[in-house]
Amino acid sequence: xxxxxxxxxxxxxxxxxxxxxxxxxxxxxxxxxxxxxxxxxxxxxxxxxxxxxxxxxxxxxxxxxxxxxxxxxxxxxxxxxxxxxxxxxxxxxxxxxxxxxxxxxxxxxxxxxxxxxxxxxxxxxxxxxxxxxxxxxxxxxxxxxxxxxxxxxxxxxxxxxxxxxxxxxxxxxxxxxxxxxxxxxxxxxxxxxxxxxxxxxxxxxxxxxxxxxxxxxxxxxxxxxxxxxxxxxxxxxxxxxxxxxxxxxxxxxxxxxxxxxxxxxxxxxxxxxxxxxxxxxxxxxxxxxxxxxxxxxxxxxxxxxxxxxxxxxxxxxxxxxxxxxxxxxxxxxxxxxxxxxxx
Length: 343
Known about the structure:
By secondary structure, this protein is an alpha+beta fold. The chain is about 30% helix and about 25% strand. Strand 1 and strand 2 form a beta hairpin.
């Protein structure tokens, strides 16, 4: 039983890692605690080596669904951030819901993280991106450790599955992965995109009207509630159901999430995404996301050409020095360039 939990947890942890990195070189290199460095192209090479190359498609979160809606911020958020996102006005949103990993054939009931990527269209043609997954922490403290996880999960040609011994070796030599592995061993995939809480993973800064900075994390909590699948539901589920269910849900009425922002205190980790903050931190509702429609992703749909780079930020929100967060932008750029060129 313990071995089974490890395999499930390790696989989930890897896919969660994969969900958070898939692509203007703000940081060209990612260093590990041991001094190893990798480049953005090397990261994408690792994805391609593990998942294969699917020309013209994303290297990560390849399987997804387009959606659209709006966001309205609150006065509580405006007190901490001067971003137009929290002006109280209605902000148009282009969204993409997805599954972590680089295989377009991944079944929806697989222990892969659900992702929510948002592009907010602010006044004056400004953009704000927010990308999230449905776990509160990341499984690697550095890009190099993340790439090691991807390489360790490369399927064995004989079995078509990752080699359990390589996954164990990765876990044994990368203690930063263990917190998420343990967390994942107690959870199953959520039943629907709209019954999922999505987390920022990284720490960000809210910048107020006076220029003061406030460390924050956030999560988008669904008003439909968060529901995990049972083992029986996972076994009986069709190969594809998340997109169909989301489309049907939005036809009945909007799916709604509340953005809950947690405010950090002195000493809270801000540059290591594998470490969580206490749930007792001060938090408040920063806004409401309303998704009114969903459509299959295909050429011509609004979300298909977007590179959901999380470092696309408008004034009032800023990144921390989290090395994984900063590495995502150059890695996204490599993936995006290959996708545009049909590679």
